[in-house]
């Protein structure tokens, strides 16, 4: 065996200054001691002969612990198991996959921690014996950097692939380099088309393209939190849509510009929701206005209709004056029906709700509809066999169906087809997003479709507005669809219109579904035999002076003894300081802090023998019909006929006596 190599931990020998070999040895020793990389030497058996300080630091050993041990002690995994075999093959065949090339291997520290190394191997011969040198470079930092980079790339790729909004990556010359999958879903264009045609085809117009060029340059140079620009784009099928575009510069930490990243968010659905909300708010404002006007007008009609009826009772056999009075009464009744429609649109109508099956209701109207539509229109139905019940006002449903059928007839002057359909639907959060007042749940849909001339977008946008009509002067008052819309909303439902020119129209009513059994509609009561008061005492509570005076006269005409109060506070004082009353007839909404319903509760508590009847112009003043029924109260709505007033008061007094 040849002489062993000198160990580097020995004190360097002193040599003559001019000895070239000694100078080389000193130089080599200095390199070994100061090198940042680990450097080791082994003999042909793989035994460590020398290690430098960097090796000690790298593996955590003292060199005395390594000299004389097999170099595999510094290796981990498969590299340790295969080391001796690789060396034997090289020594016997000369084959090596690493000599002069280098490769990555797994090192193992003294504490057992594995880490990646780059190993370069060299060979030298001393005295006929083969030795090997290994240069070991710690790759831990590089591997951690690679892992961070791989993580960032995977994160970017996940965001890039999964983001629902299109992303475009451009180079410094603004050419599109890559796009994400959302780009294809939104624009309908393959990325290859951009490379061939450029991106000008993505824009609604050349002006939009130029605007975006300017906005892109200014936005990328500005602060990152700048508000996105709004640009109009065009899909592959030609549809134009608005989008909010955000732009960010891609640059190295050193400031070298690599390109730009653009995020395009389609805001067409958002714009539609904003328009729908604005339309709903507009309809709500119109409804409040019309409802308020109708309420005041009801008070006026109550005075007019009541006085006319009193006048008719006094005219006797004067046919001419009776005819004039009758025309005045009929005009007042027409006005009352008009206010009914306004109140329905404003969602202030007092609804007489019942649980009904719309299928039975539609089938019951078919004969009337066929007579109304004529022979030129083919009327058919598509009714769900398992239709749920809905709780609605049957009279309003009948009006809705008749109005829609008449509108369809007018839209098909040369004949056509009309289909009435019912079905069950379940609306989730996404489905009700277009109708902010709807809540998710089960609904019954009543749909009326025609093959008429359809509506323009401008007409469809205003179709539910009161007094809006396209039928011309004297052919419609514009309240049909408005009434339907108000009725649907007040019933906690919704109404929609789908229409296009020459494609017909479909109007759909969404009404909440209920589970309980249907109710049998009550038969209309006989209008004959107006009951008399027979001297019973009634307290009339009404803040409108004209209505109060008229009501007192009407009740006196029926044989009641009447007293008056302008508000609930005065009414309680009259009740406390007067002979007993049989009934209190009170308006619901009054000044003074107490409503008619509050007064009814106080009367029930303080004067339990006194009946109470409420009157109102619309339903949302304080209560609903169900609230009144739960309190044992009766309600009549203004304006009312003398016969209705007489029967209601007589029934209330009789019922109170029985209880």
Structure explained in plain terms:
Strands 11, 12, 13, 14, 15, 16 and 17 form a seven-stranded mixed beta sheet that branches. The chain has a five-stranded antiparallel beta sheet with strand order 2-1-5-4-3. Strands 7-6-10-9-8 form a five-stranded antiparallel beta sheet. A hairpin with a 2-residue loop joins β4 (114-126) and β5. The protein contains 19 helices and 22 strands.
Q: Estimate the helix proportion, in percent.
A: 40-55%
As a whole number of angstroms, the C-alpha radius of gyration is 46 Å
Mean pLDDT: 78
CATH architecture of the largest domain: 2-Layer Sandwich
Coarse shape: elongated
- Could you please say which CATH topology of the largest domain applies here? Heat Shock Protein 90
Portion in strands: 15-25%
Q: Report the sheet with the most strands, covering strand number, pairing sense and barrel closure.
A: 7 strands, mixed
The CATH superfamily title of the largest domain: Histidine kinase-like ATPase, C-terminal domain
Domains (count):
5
* Derived structural class: alpha+beta
Let me know the number of strands.
22
Our count of helices gives 19
| CATH classification class of the largest domain | Alpha Beta
């Amino acid at each position: 065996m040849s002489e062993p190599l000198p160990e580097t931990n020995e004190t360097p020998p002193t040599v003559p200054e001019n000895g070239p070999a000694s100078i080389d040895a000193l130089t080599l020793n200095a390199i070994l001691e100061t090198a940042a990389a680990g450097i080791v030497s082994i003999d042909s058996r793989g035994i460590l002969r020398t290690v430098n300080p960097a090796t000690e630091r790298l593996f955590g050993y003292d060199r005395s612990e390594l000299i004389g041990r097999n170099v595999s002690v510094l290796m981990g995994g498969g590299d340790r198991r295969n080391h001796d075999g690789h060396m034997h093959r090289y020594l016997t065949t000369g084959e090596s996959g690493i000599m002069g090339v280098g490769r990555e291997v797994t090192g193992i520290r003294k504490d057992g921690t594995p880490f990646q190394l780059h190993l370069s191997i060299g060979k030298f011969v001393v005295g006929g014996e083969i030795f090997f040198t290994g240069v070991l470079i710690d790759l831990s930092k590089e591997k951690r950097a690679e892992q961070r980079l791989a993580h960032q790339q995977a994160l970017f790729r996940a965001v890039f692939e999964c983001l629902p909004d299109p992303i475009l990556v451009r180079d410094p010359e603004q050419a599109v380099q890559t796009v994400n999958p959302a780009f294809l879903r939104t624009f309908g264009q393959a990325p290859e088309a951009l490379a061939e045609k450029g991106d000008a085809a993505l824009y609604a117009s050349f002006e939009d393209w130029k605007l975006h060029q300017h906005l892109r340059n200014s936005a990328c140079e500005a602060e990152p939190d700048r508000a996105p620009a709004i640009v109009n784009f065009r899909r592959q099928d030609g549809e134009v849509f608005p989008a909010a575009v955000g732009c960010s510069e891609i640059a190295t930490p050193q400031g070298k510009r690599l390109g730009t990243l653009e995020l395009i968010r389609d805001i067409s659905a958002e714009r539609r929701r904003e328009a729908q909300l604005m339309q709903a708010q507009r309809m709500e404002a119109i409804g409040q206005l019309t409802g308020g006007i109708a309420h005041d007008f009801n008070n006026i009609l109550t005075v007019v209709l009541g006085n006319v009826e009193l006048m008719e009772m006094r005219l006797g056999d004067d046919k001419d004056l009776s005819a004039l009075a009758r025309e005045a009464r009929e005009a007042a009744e027409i006005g009352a029906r008009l206010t009914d429609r306004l109140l329905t649109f404003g969602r202030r109508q007092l609804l007489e709700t019942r649980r009904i099956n719309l299928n039975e209701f539609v089938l019951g109207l078919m004969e009337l509809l066929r007579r109304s539509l004529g022979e030129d229109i083919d009327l058919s139905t598509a009714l769900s066999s398992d239709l749920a019940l809905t709780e609605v006002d049957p009279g309003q449903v009948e009006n809705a169906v008749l109005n829609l059928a008449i509108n369809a007839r007018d839209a098909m002057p040369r004949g056509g087809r009309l289909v009435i359909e019912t079905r069950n639907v379940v609306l989730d959060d996404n489905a009700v997003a277009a109708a902010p007042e709807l809540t998710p749940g089960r609904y019954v849909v009543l749909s009326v479709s025609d093959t008429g001339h359809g509506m323009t977008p401008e007409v469809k946008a205003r179709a539910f507005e009161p007094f809006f009509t396209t039928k011309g002067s004297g052919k419609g008052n514009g309240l049909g669809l408005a009434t339907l819309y108000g009725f649907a909303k007040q019933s906690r439902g919704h109404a929609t219109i789908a229409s296009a020119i020459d494609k017909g129209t479909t109007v759909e009513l969404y009404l909440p579904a209920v589970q309980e059994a249907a109710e049998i509609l009550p038969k209309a009561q006989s209008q004959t035999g107006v009951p008399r008061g027979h001297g019973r005492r009634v307290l009339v509570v009404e803040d409108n002076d004209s209505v109060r005076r008229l009501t007192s006269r009407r009740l006196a005409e029926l044989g009641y003894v009447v007293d008056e109060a302008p508000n609930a506070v005065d009414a309680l004082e009259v009740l406390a300081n007067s002979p007993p009353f049989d009934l209190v007839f009170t308006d619901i909404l009054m000044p003074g802090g107490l409503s008619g319903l509050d007064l009814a509760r106080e009367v029930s508590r303080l004067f339990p023998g006194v009946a109470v009847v409420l009157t109102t112009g619309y339903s949302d003043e304080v209560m609903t019909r169900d609230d009144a029924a739960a309190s044992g109260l009766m309600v009549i709505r203004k304006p009312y006929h003398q016969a209705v007033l007489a029967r209601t008061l007589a029934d209330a007094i009789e019922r109170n006596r029985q209880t």
